[in-house]
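Figure 2 data, in text form.
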Amino acid sequence: MKLNILGCYAATPRTLTNPTSQVLEIKNHLFLIDCGEGTQVQLRKNKIKFSRINHIFISHLHGDHFFGLPGLISTFRLLGRDKEMHIYGPKGIKEAITLLLKLGDSWTNYPISFHELVSKKPELIFEDEKVSVETIPLDHRVYTNGFLFREKLGERKLNIEAVAKYKIDKCYFQNIKNGKDITLDDGIVVPNMKLTLDPPKPKNYAYCSDTGYYPEIIEQINKVDILYHESTFLESEAHLSAKTKHATA
């Protein structure tokens, strides 16, 4: 798992800082999380391949979290993209993006699947054999979700020393990786556990974007390996955070 924070500043772009956007590399996926202005430039500065981004997660529809998305979608078209793009975000994101594409007569040459979110409870929104993604409902001025990314337990690893000890031919290695026991020439069965090593412990990452103090999320995120939680204000400015529903540090 590798997290690349492209921007984490407040609502306005600055010379050396950028609005919110992140790239999470997890189990061969490259997930883009929020897409504020300047995201494309940051992707290029960090030498991140545009073609590897197939899933984009938008926490809410405030501009500093998604105004970079229309431009990125347009750039994908100019780069000749033909692979489907999946966009997860609050209800209304499809209308916002398609309106701009329509007005600019710049429809994409690749399919876009919009997954609009409305639930105020944690919801599984993506899953394959290696990773899952669920929403973390937050408390902001507009409908907002964070996202919880979980790795799944991987395959057991081949123990080279063990297979050498039992003089097992390489042609059986794939069967061992698939979890099968091995029967030796003398009829002795060697359990798979003796021929493999435990896979790495799965990791998980919780992304909590703009939100006021919200104890309801503690149970969902309290055992994550990495937590990103915005804190726009200092504790001394708590009176401001209460008005805008941001957190303090």
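Caption note: The two ends are 26 Å apart (CA to CA).
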